[in-house]
UniProtKB/TrEMBL annotation:
Active site per the UniProt annotation: S122, H127, C150
Protein name: S-adenosylmethionine decarboxylase proenzyme
EC numbers, comma separated: 4.1.1.50
HAMAP family: AdoMetDC_2 (MF_00465)
Catalytic function, reaction form: S-adenosyl-L-methionine + H(+) = S-adenosyl 3-(methylsulfanyl)propylamine + CO2
Originating organism: Alkaliphilus hydrothermalis
Pathway where it operates: Amine and polyamine biosynthesis; S-adenosylmethioninamine biosynthesis; S-adenosylmethioninamine from S-adenosyl-L-methionine: step 1/1
Broad enzyme group: lyase
Known cofactor(s): pyruvate
One of the Pfam families matching this protein, by short name: AdoMet_dc
Site (Cleavage (non-hydrolytic)): K121, S122
Function (record text): Catalyzes the decarboxylation of S-adenosylmethionine to S-adenosylmethioninamine (dcAdoMet), the propylamine donor required for the synthesis of the polyamines spermine and spermidine from the diamine putrescine.
Amino acid sequence: MDVKPLKKLKLYGFNNLTKTLSFNMYDICYAKTVEDRKNYIEYIDEQYSAERLTNILTNVADIIGANILNIAKQDYDPQGASVTMLVSEGLVASNENHGEEDHNSEAPGPLPDGVVAHLDKSHITVHTYPESHPDEGISTFRADIDVSTCGHISPLKALNYLIHSFDSDIMYIDYRVRGFTRDVTGKKFFIDHKINSIQNYIAGETRNRYQMIDVNVYQENIFHTKMILKEFDLDNYLFGITKKDLLPGEKKKIKQRLKKEMAEIFYGRNIPKV
């Protein structure tokens, strides 16, 4: 669905609207042994390094039309990483490390550990939360992502790239527009583009893969969409083993545990055991 902007506004001064796109993304897996769970955490720490975070955020800044002025990154011991970017909306004289990759061909990658990027009065943040159930073997990996911008640049431009990069089992996506800007006559505008659902900005291929629910508060310019994968292949949720390594009874129990975990996260409530 095409989403057209409002008639171009002639503004008095800077566009003061703050547009924020927020994600909670979840990946679920089953790690059978204590050793597998340990290896899972180590895998996350290795894959979600500050270097990878920097690449993802560089592409996000490029897509939304922001320019990176400075990058600071750090991997932590025993685990975790952070990246900080200073970014401007306008053009800069030198942009040597920017936009060298093909955004559309970037394969879906694992989720990072921690990121902060500042866009003048705006920011991009990513934090991750890996955890394992001590008895059930379920390992849940959550990433919280915020892209907040001021001015004409919009975080919605990076929506499909982020979904593609973090290719998750479950996603909560929030978009809100806060504050106001004025036109040359002094009239306030509390939004500068048309939107009735975040789904308007999600690629058709992605919409076909996920079951989606909307909860929107139009009068407050608040939009919420949550998504869960439609298809379930047990092999995609096993760490350190495959379906061939499990007995039929084990496969059934593990599948039930995984689906219960996913349903609880998607609906935001605990589901009693039957």
